[in-house]
């Protein structure tokens, strides 16, 4: 069964909107672990609009499951942060500065030499490396040439097309995973996976090791916890 790594970026977004420590990011990470999550994912961005660099140190000190740090290794600050914390896994994502969210995988052909250098740097420190890629055969093949341990398949296209034709939506991911398997690469996946599209993806894509899920999971936590919470507030007003 693929592991679930919970991406807690959105908890930090909410916390930062008031400047205090509510919700408490570290507590949420520990709660996710207590409830069965097998990993915690964060994606610190250069503007620190959600995960702050200090959060990474605070999380690393306490979490017991797999810590996965995602980000763009073109930022020296990101490289230093990862090397200082030595997470179980670093996922290299080619986002531009100020980008709203991740929207494409690496061009592993164009950036093969650079990625090879980055992969070696992190692996030397005992950190597993995963490269974020679109489900395109040449990109998977060139990713293997970098020496990376794993790839993370960027699943936004699957999530968007799922409602219309799920078999067609998943087909490129199945092919990409087969190619990755042939090349000896581990397979992760993420972006816009949710309660509707996840089980089909996990059933169809061979050798899936890990999914990282944030936006939908945190949104669902609000929906599913809202009834209890409203009732608790109402109880406070009764006397
Ligand atoms: C790498 C990836 O797939 C993203 O989903 C990312 O981790 C989310 O980042 P934001 O929370 O900033 O949208
Ligand atoms: N790597 C993908 C991730 O961490 C979470 O993506 P999303 O569920 O927030 O779209």
From TrEMBL:
Subunit structure: Homooctamer; tetramer of dimers.
InterPro entries to which the protein is assigned, alphabetical: Aldolase_TIM, PyrdxlP_synth_PdxJ, Pyridoxine-5'_phos_synth
Principal place of residence: cytoplasm
Record: residues binding 3-amino-2-oxopropyl phosphate: 7, 18, 192, 214-215
Recorded coiled-coil stretches: none
Molecular functions (GO terms): pyridoxine 5'-phosphate synthase activity
The encoding gene: pdxJ
Protein name: Pyridoxine 5'-phosphate synthase
Marked site positions, Transition state stabilizer: 152
A GO term from the CC aspect: cytosol
């Amino acid at each position: 069964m693929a592991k679930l790594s919970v991406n807690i970026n959105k908890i930090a977004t909410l916390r930062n909107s008031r400047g205090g420590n509510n919700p408490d990011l570290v507590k949420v990470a520990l709660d996710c672990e207590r409830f069965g999550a097998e990993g915690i994912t964060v994606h610190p961005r250069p503007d620190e609009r959600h995960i702050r660099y200090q959060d990474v140190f605070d999380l690393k000190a306490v979490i017991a499951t797999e810590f996965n740090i995602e980000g763009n290794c073109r930022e020296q600050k990101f490289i230093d942060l990862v090397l200082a914390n030595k997470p179980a896994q670093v996922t290299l994502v080619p986002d531009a500065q100020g980008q709203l969210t991740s929207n494409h995988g690496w061009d592993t052909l164009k950036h093969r030499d650079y990625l090879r250098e980055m992969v070696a740097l992190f692996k030397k420190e005992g950190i597993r490396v995963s490269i974020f890629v679109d489900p395109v055969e040449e990109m998977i093949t060139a990713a293997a040439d970098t020496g990376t341990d794993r790839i993370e398949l960027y699943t936004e296209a699957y999530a968007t097309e799922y409602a219309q034709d799920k078999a067609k939506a998943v087909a490129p991911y199945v092919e990409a995973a087969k190619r990755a398997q042939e090349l000896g690469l581990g397979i992760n996946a993420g972006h816009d996976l949710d309660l509707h599209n996840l089980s089909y993806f996990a059933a169809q894509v061979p050798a899936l090791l890990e999914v990282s899920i944030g936006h939908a999971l945190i949104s669902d936590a609000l929906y599913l916890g809202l009834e209890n919470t409203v009732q608790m507030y109402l109880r406070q007003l009764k006397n």
